[in-house]
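Exercise 7. Given the components listed, write out the predicted structure of the assembled complex. Treat all entries as one system.
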Amino acid sequence: MKAIHQASLLKNRALAPQLYEMELLAPQMASVSKPGQFVMVRIGENQDPLLRRPFGLAGIDPESGRIRLVYQVVGRGTDQMSHWRTGRTVDVLGPLGNGFTWTEDPGRVILAGGGLGIAPLLPLAQALRSAGKEVTVFLGSRTESLLFGIPEFSELGCELQLATEDGSQGFKGFLTTPLEHFLCAQALDAVFLKAKEASEAGAGHAHVHTHAMLREGMKETGFHQLYACGPSPFLKVIGNLSSRYGLPAQLSFEERMACGVGACMGCAIQIKNPDGTLKTSRVCSDGPVFTGEEVHWNG
Amino acid sequence: MADLHVNLAGLQLSNPVLAASGCFGFGREYNEFYPIRQAGGIMVKGLTLEPCAGNPTPRIAETPAGMLNSIGLQNPGVDAFLSNELPWLLSQEAAVIANINGHALEDFEEIARRLQGAPGLKAIEVNISCPNVSHGGMFFGTDPAMASEVTRRVRKHTSLPLIIKLSPNVTDITEIARAVVSEGADILSLINTLLGMAIDVKTRKPLLARKVGGLSGPAVKPVALRMVWQTAQAVDVPIIGMGGISSAQDALEFLMAGASAVAVGCASFVDPLAIPRIIGDLNAWLDREGFAGVRDVVGLALR
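Answer.
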């Protein structure tokens, strides 16, 4: 049985103008939640604002029974949330959705978070580091103050690369640019290394650089999975990079939702069946995580 | 314990609180919160002859005390309903009402034909009021002659209790009500959503991909209640009232306005336990006020 939790608000503070973090005591939920899952928070005690708001879990701590949310004030609901005082009871539905998956073995992975899409990557990085993986994290936002999680990722021992649209921190532009440079450099290094070895063994000279070779090179790097969360146009670019470099991607989508449990069909996404036909899936209950291969990009 | 049983023109239900079509899928999601047989009945997601992918996103926009949707009847089609969803619903002992939709008159007939004789199905609700599709939909429910024609054609093919779901997007809802009752509608359900829109000032564009959508939620309740009250005085068939019901008090208002049963829609999104909560509170209210059965409050405000 799914349940609605009455969680106690432990912390609700501004990280930056319009950016907040919230910690809730919800032991039962914290004990079953997985990275990539989300919750629906009820805002109004009465009927306005009416709908619950979805938030990816930015922290899951089964030991202390806490969950953490990071949110930006963008409308009536999040504005009301930002005024909530500690000690208040918060009506939370969840955990919802499928979450990310990983294998419990070492290896190299890349995480890419755009804007609030950084949030679900925090518990994911923790799980991946516990599994012994080498984690490279790309974070991007509009401006420096909206970048969050940097100390947490560093403390976990993740490699970090930053980008802001206004250039106030790290690369100036979208984070997909440094990500692409990184993938290309990694793959080329592997390609050149292989070519050098081949040439030293007297097997002829280096080949022409093609996408097939980049994909071959990518395999040699040890990177085996790309995880991303953020706005849909950003995920589309990540999806393209994933297929160009042959690096499987798990993409976590954001979409407007009403129910959060799969009943209203509001958060539709087009997914490719194995036979190439399309089906309409639900971001909330079939996702929010889909593989780069299965998503059908409109336009 | 008050008696919650209701009998709507032969449609026997254990209590008068139903799940409204389009807000409850095929019951599977809410069965993870409570046994869905607790609902008086389940009006399933609107069915079309062929599977339907629905509209582009965004399909949802919140409005003051309400929401706009433009789902566009995404559903697996009537055949998948019969082979996958209905047997599962019946295994949960749910009282199932099929909601049917068409782009053309023939679609309604064909779906009714396929549903005829489906074991366990309690009733058919004909949606002549969907505002979110380009062909058919609300078009059938805003013209009395067309509404009559749909009713007449479906009536030919079904022996089940026939519910016609009315659109509020008309000048006089009683005119449509009379027209469909004269062609054999056993029960009326009202209201479907009100056509509305919302614009994002930042992007200068409508919030919904399809620009306009159906408004539901507490914001529409006074309109829905007024239409139930008017319709109850215009026709002699039972009414299933809906539109913004989220508490037992809301349900009682509809019952007193002349509805014999009610349906809960968007309240389940906000509170997944809305239906069992309303049933429990309704029961408690009836006991407290000394009513032996829920039937005794129907139409009290009409006298």
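Discussion: The radius of gyration of chain B is 18 Å. Residues 6-55+71-195+216-302 of chain B form a domain with the TIM Barrel fold (CATH 3.20.20.70).
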